[in-house]
Amino acid sequence: MKHYRGTTPRSNKLAFIVAFAVALLASLAAAGPASADEGSHRTWQVQVGSESRDQEIQGMAFLPSEIFINKRDTITWHANSAEIHTVTFLASGQSLQPFNPFSNDELLKRGGDSYDGHSYYNSGLLANVDVPGFPDARSYSLSFPREGDFTYYCLVHGMVMKGTVHVRDRGTDYPYSQADYDKASRAQERSILRDGQQLDASLAQQASNHKVIAGGDDGVAMVMRFVRPTVTVHVGDTVVFANTGMDAPHTVTFGTEPANIFAPSGDRSHFNGGDLNSGIMWPGDEFAVTFQAKGTFEYICALHDYMGMVGKVRVVD
To answer: Residue 135 burial by CB count (10 A; 0-12/13-18/19+): exposed, middle or buried?
Structure first.
């Protein structure tokens, strides 16, 4: 398991959760609980993901990740990042599986607008920009007519990105207001950004002219960049592209993006230019390319180039 500045991804996640709890308790101490009218219902807002202004750092969290509402209330989840996410309540007895980008049950909305407490409900993909090659929406709303504690996930990022909805009886006083949640979420966003910046600095220490780090993630934040994206090597040299993350897949794609970005194509052992694709690189995968001709060769991550995940290799004598 990787370590970043003396901490493990597990401890990063724990510190992140503690920071959110402290911020929420501080808000409650200042504002106190919110009263509820038994005959009314409210609509609550939850942010899905977060990001830096340049989209380099992407957060893997629902903000807030835990929310207390009453029966008949509605939650609207808003896409808050360029990275794709889902809001997904699994059916009773259904286990969380790796994301399948070819399944319409995962890509598209499933279930109605009122949660029954036990069936499969899915927002479909959510993003705050148009994502090439995927359908996406900007928001998702669901009402909750039944009491209970309901856990949901992002199918794309699995166990590292989950939330809980606590539904109580009508008329129960709310422990937090929307303003409390918003204040704590802003603090959480800042914490995610700091984590991502530290991760980026740690990845930079691993990179060299002959090793490019293909993104990174630590269970809290993702770096959606090639770290050391521009390198200069000599004819005959090999550059290794390494996905050292925990969760996010990437590609290394030179030339024309293929119709099937998931499958490898081209000759990486004798690359003279043209089309070359790594296929999907899961965490721990490496893709070594040996350059046999002079020139400047541009490449992209075919999954995340719209966020700025691009680079180039300059080959000289």
So the answer is: middle
Q: What angle do CA 290, 314, 309 make, to 5 degrees?
A: 90
Domain ranges for the chain, please list them.
9-192, 207-316
Residue among 268, 291, 270 nearest 279 (CA): 268
Closest of 205, 209, 214, 206 to residue 233, by C-alpha: 209
User: Which superfamily, per CATH, for 207-316?
Assistant: Cupredoxins -  blue copper proteins (2.60.40.420)
Instruction: Decide: helix, strand or coil at residue 309.
Output: coil
Nearest-angstrom CA–CA distance, 95 and 106: 14
Q: Report how far apart, in Å, the C-alpha atoms of 55 and of each of 164, 306, 308 are.
A: 26, 9, 8
pLDDT digits (tens, 9 = 90+) for 92-117: 999 999 999 999 999 999 999 999 99
Q: What is the pLDDT of residues 231-272, one digit of tens each?
A: 999 999 999 999 999 889 999 999 999 999 999 999 999 999
Read off the DSSP letter of residue 179.
H
CATH tag, 9-192: 2.60.40.420
Contacts of 244 (CB under 8 A, 6+ apart): 2, 203, 206, 213, 214, 216, 283, 284
Q: Provide mean pLDDT across the span 164-181.
A: 98
**Nearest in space to 81 (alpha carbons), one of 312, 257, 304:** 304
Q: What is the DSSP letter of 4?
A: B
Query: How are beta strands 121-123 and 109-110 bridged, if at all?
Result: antiparallel
* φ and ψ at residue 182, rounded to 5 degrees: -65, -40
- Please say whether the beta carbons of 118 and 69 come within 8 A: no
Q: Judging by DSSP bridges, how do beta strands 139-143 and 74-79 pair with one another?
A: antiparallel
Exposure string of 213-231, with b = 16+ CB inside 10 Å and e = fewer, is bbbbbbbbbbbbbbbbbeb
